[in-house]
Amino acid sequence: MISLTDQPFEPGALLTAFSQGRSETGAIATFTGLARAERGATTTLELEAYPGFTETAIGKIADEAKARFTLDDFHIVHRIGKIAPGEAIVFVAAAATHRRAAFEACDFLMDYLKSRAPFWKKETGPDGSRWIEPREQDHADIARWETSKP
Amino acid sequence: MAKVLLFGRLSDIAGWREREIESASIAALRALLSGEDADLAEALARPGVQVALDQAIVRGDAAITAGSEVAFLPPMSGG
Questions:
Q1: Does residue A8 surpass a pLDDT of 90?
Q2: pLDDT value, residue A147
Q3: Residue A88: is its pLDDT beyond 90?
């Protein structure tokens, strides 16, 4: 399941719901990304999506993860709109038979969400606003998956 | 008329997010937008800016038909 929301969410509740009724899944791994205050430099984070296009693009990323890591299931929640420091921006859960696939699927999903999913992120603080673009590290993270097949 | 959408820094620079514009192709639209706003021209020419036609990424030029949706997408950053 993939959802975008402009409301704060509680990662623990999402994990509880995702874990219900699984008799064949041996492993669930999750990742939660939080908005950072950057020692006061950021008071608000604002995330923009392209409705429809963004969900489709995330769907393609998730389908690839599901096939590559043989996932039983996944759940991706991504915030849009204004986000305060300390709030969760993204939640990713992957369910698989064994732990390695679940860990790696979360890692893969996050690398692609960081720089391939259609989101645009603006930080606002006392010194004004700036748009965040992928860093070299984000491109290097993606490259790991493109050169190594499991 | 096509619906033209700007995202991220592009809409901040241009001062608009959505407009109806008459144009025959992506290249013609890009030239028209660049001609009316030098700051937007510079931003559109930066590396990593992609174009989506009816919610599919297009590389190079493509024809725009009535009712099309054209979106200019700066480098993406989620998570």
A1: yes
A2: 78
A3: yes
In a domain, B78, yes or no: no
> With an 8 Å Cβ cutoff, is B76 touching chain A?
yes
Total domains in chain B come to: 1
d(CA B18, CA B32): 15
Considering only CB atoms, B55 lies closest to which of A52, A90, A110, namely A52
Per-position DSSP letters for A124-136, written without gaps between them? EETTEEEEE---H
State which residues form the domain around B58: 2-73
Q: Which amino acid is at A85?
A: P
**Crossing angle of helices A99-115 and A136-147, rounded to 10°:** 130
CB pair distance less than 8 Å for B77 and A119: yes
CATH homologous superfamily of domain A2-147?
A: Molybdopterin biosynthesis MoaE subunit (3.90.1170.40)
Cβ within 8 Å, pair A119-B76: yes
Report whether pLDDT(A148) > 80: no
* Spans of chain B below 50 pLDDT: none
Cα-flanking dihedrals φ and ψ of residue B34, to 5°?
Answer: -65, -35
* Residue among A36, A50, A77 with most chain B CBs within 10 A, to mutate: A50
